[in-house]
Give the backbone structure.
Amino acid sequence: MAEVKEIYRYLDGLAPFSIQMDFDNAGFLVGRGDAPVSRILVALDITEEVAAEAADLGAELIVSHHPVIFFPARSITDGDPTGRKLLALAENHIAAICAHTNLDAVAGGVNDALALRLGLRSVGQLHQDGVDGRGAAYGIGRVGVLEGEKRLTDFAAFVKERLGGGGVRLVDAGRPVHKVAVGGGACANMMGDALALGCDTFVTSDVKYDGFLDALALGLNLIDAGHYPTENVVCPVLADWLKKGFPQVEIHISRRHHEVFSYL
């Protein structure tokens, strides 16, 4: 058994909440700090389905990547999705800790997990955002290399398979794939960083139309592999961290949460 505040402090030691980006709302967002925890559910998002899953499991805490509260709530009622989620958590005595951009940037977090899932070697930072209180550099995105080269279509198919996505969107700039940048979630604004480091290919998500046009004009292969697939890779990482830190607590990864849309 552990307390919510102990788990928060442990996660803060691995992915300091102080390094989250200014727009973010990561942290201990719902619940009582001294509440006991015997089961934790890990999920990319806290949806109504995930809240129900936690209640069915008897979990007292959900640890997620995306914040369950992002914008200030002016009311908490059953009349909107956010209100229903928060009511479900409160009524079932379920706390929520959400590690968002701090987990994107920290060593071993979202982007390292994505780079390793895609088989990249010699992984380094795509962009350094700062240095934390312990003197450790942090930043969004990673860069690594493949063993040998691949055709873009072959690599894109590999990305789709490795991330379990329903499909990918891509721009072929006519270059073989060897040095690859990755940015879990919406990181298309970092194409300049990828080019500056000599990358031929960038894997990210949520790319707008003009982003694809820019990539083609700049000579950068671009793969949009989806927000959920590029970030859900961190859930096993979070689960492993929690198992190591709290071996007496049951850790579960959500089975009900999945990609929100389908491909035809």
User: Anything to note?
Assistant: The chain has a mean pLDDT of 96. The domain at 2-103+233-253 is CATH 3.40.1390.30 (Udp-n-acetylmuramoylalanyl-d-glutamate--2,6- Diaminopimelate Ligase; Chain: A, domain 1). The two ends are 46 Å apart (CA to CA). The chain is about 35% helix and 25% strand.
